[in-house]
């Protein structure tokens, strides 16, 4: 869906919202940005002085979230990450001899919101489950942390007032029911569902047999003291675009 189509959909939703007394029709003047979406704010436009299409999309997604109409979709990659989060933390504790616990507290800094996976006395940690071996190899051999994760961690450090943060890339076997869903998608390739499923299960066995040190990889960063200033500089034009958009949608 391109930007124009997304805006038209939001305009339609806006009109529907106005006709419903059950939904809040007045959106806040200052939007909150999720830490996981922060990279979208820091994506530069091709032309200086303008907002990038990615940043505009962030605006539309933020409005959709505020009115409770954010598109609900989950890729198999995201689904595995969510499902395996608790098991991944347990596995990490076993391998690294740590005692990490899942954090369930959401932080609200006024304009930035987020829920870090793990918070210790001196750092914040985010678990990233690699979908497969190929993805894991790509993740752990990069010279720099992925832009999306970098800005997510900077946001978390700001919210929790920590000076250190890290991503833990973890490679776990895929749950059986997800393998079954994959097998259905690959059935056309193998011309046989059972054969596709067997191939996927063999890959799972390979993952389980890999050295534990390979399956857990740490990528650490430190707090950028200029991050808040950089955020504020980008937030103001984003906020203006957001306010202009909700005005067009008659949601202010």
Features:
4-stranded mixed sheet, 252 residues, single chain, 7 strands, 2 domains
Outline:
The protein has 11 helices and 7 strands. It has 252 residues and is of the alpha/beta class.
Description:
By secondary structure, the chain is of the alpha/beta class. The protein folds into 2 domains: 3-72 and 229-248, no CATH class; 76-226, Lambda Exonuclease, Chain A (Alpha-Beta Complex). Helices cover 53% and strands 13% of the residues. The strands form 2 sheets. Strands 4-5-6-7 form a 4-stranded mixed sheet, sandwiched between helices. Strands 1-3-2 form a 3-stranded mixed sheet, with helices on one face. Helix 3 packs across helix 11 (227-248) and helix 8 (176-190) crosses helix 9. The radius of gyration is 21 Å and the shape is globular. The two termini are 25 Å apart.
What fraction of the residues are assigned to beta strands by DSSP? Answer: 5-15%
Can you tell me the residue ranges where pLDDT is under 50 for at least 5 consecutive residues?
none
CATH fold group of the largest domain: Lambda Exonuclease, Chain A
Give the helices and strands as they follow along the chain: HEHHHHEEEEHHEHHHEH
Number of separate structural domains:
2
Which CATH C-level class of the largest domain is it?
Answer: Alpha Beta
Biggest sheet: strands, sense, closure? 4 strands, mixed
């Amino acid at each position: 869906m391109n930007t124009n189509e997304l805006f038209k959909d939001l305009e339609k939703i806006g009109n529907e919202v106005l006709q419903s007394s059950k939904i809040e029709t007045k959106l806040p003047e200052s939007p909150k940005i999720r830490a996981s979406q922060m990279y979208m704010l820091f994506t530069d436009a091709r032309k200086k002085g303008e907002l990038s299409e990615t940043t505009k999309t962030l605006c539309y997604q933020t409005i959709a979230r505020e009115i409770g109409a954010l598109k609900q979709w989950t890729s198999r990659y995201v689904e595995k990450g969510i499902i395996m989060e608790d098991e991944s933390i347990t596995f990490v504790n076993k391998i690294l001899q740590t005692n990490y616990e899942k954090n369930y507290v959401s932080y609200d800094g006024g304009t930035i919101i987020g829920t870090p996976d793990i918070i210790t006395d001196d750092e914040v940690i985010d678990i990233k489950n690699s979908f497969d071996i190929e993805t894991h190899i790509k993740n752990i051999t990069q010279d720099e942390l992925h832009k999306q994760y970098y800005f997510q961690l900077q946001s978390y450090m700001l919210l929790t007032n920590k000076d250190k943060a890290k991503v833990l890339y973890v490679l776990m076997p895929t749950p059986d029911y997800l393998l079954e869903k994959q097998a259905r998608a690959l059935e056309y390739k193998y011309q046989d569902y059972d054969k596709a499923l067997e191939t996927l299960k063999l890959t799972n066995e390979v993952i389980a047999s890999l050295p534990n040190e390979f399956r857990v990889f740490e990528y650490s960063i430190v707090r950028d003291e200029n991050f808040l200033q950089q955020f504020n500089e980008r937030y103001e034009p984003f906020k203006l675009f957001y306010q202009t958009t909700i005005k067009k949608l008659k949601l202010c």
